[in-house]
Amino acid sequence: MGDVLLVGFPALVLLAVLWAVSAALKPRDHGLSDAERYQRELAARSAAHQAAQTQAALAARAKMEASTRHRDAEQRHQQNPQAHSVSGQLAAFAPGGTPSGHQGNILPNGQLNPQLALQLRAMVRSGQKVQAVKLLRQATHVDLSTAKNYIDRL
After folding, report:
1. Spatial CA neighbour of 89 closest among 77, 106, 114
2. What pLDDT does residue 96 have?
3. CA atoms within 13 A on the CB side of 106
4. What are phi and psi of 106, to 5 degrees?
5. Under DSSP, is residue 147 helix (H, G, I), strand (E, B) or coil?
6. Residue 111 in contact with residue 97, Cβ under 8 Å?
7. Is the pLDDT of residue 43 over 60?
């Protein structure tokens, strides 16, 4: 029994050392842990959900604005059938019929120059509605109620 222990014990120790060395030299899996994989998957799902919610909100807003414009146009038409819409009055000042010095504020399709529109939006957001109405009236020569209605819709 002693001879078996003298030969078996060092062999067992040698096997343990070989196993430890092979385990230490074995290439590690440097992939993502389950927690990191879950976090990335959760972030991707969250981003997709947010994008879908944003798209749905923008579609709902566009639909609501379209119905509001249609309803407002009907109300104006019922109140005064000869009244023009804001864009109709602005279209009267398109570059072809614009008084001199004011070309460029109204585009040929009756829309405001984008730079002027951005300036008006910035003024409205900063609480300067009265100044925005004045600027719109100076730039386009529309009447006060038309300018006010346009600014209120920004």
Report:
1. 106
2. 41
3. 27
4. -120, 130
5. helix
6. no
7. yes
**Cβ distance 68 to 60 under 8 Å?**
no
Extract the tokens encoding 126.
Answer: 């900063």
pTM as predicted: 0.36
pLDDT in tens, 63-85: 888 888 777 777 766 665 444 44
The DSSP-derived string for 35-103 is HHHHHHHHHHHHHHHHHHHHHHHHHHHHHHHHHHHHHHHHHHHHH-TTPPPHHHHHHTTSTTTPPTT-T
Nearest to 106 by CA among 67, 127, 137: 137
| Dihedral (Cα; 82, 87, 91, 92), 10-degree rounding | 40
97-147 pLDDT, tens digit each? 444 344 467 777 778 888 999 999 999 999 999 999 999 999 988 899 999
**Farthest-apart Cα atoms in the chain, separation:** 119
Angle CA(149)–CA(147)–CA(120) in degrees, nearest 5?
A: 95
Spatial distance between the Cα atoms of 129 and 150, rounded to a whole number of angstroms: 11
Nearest to 21 by CA among 32, 29, 31, 13: 13
Asked if 122 contacts 135 with a C-beta cutoff of 8 angstroms, the reply is: no
Nearest by Cα to 142 from 152, 154, 133: 133
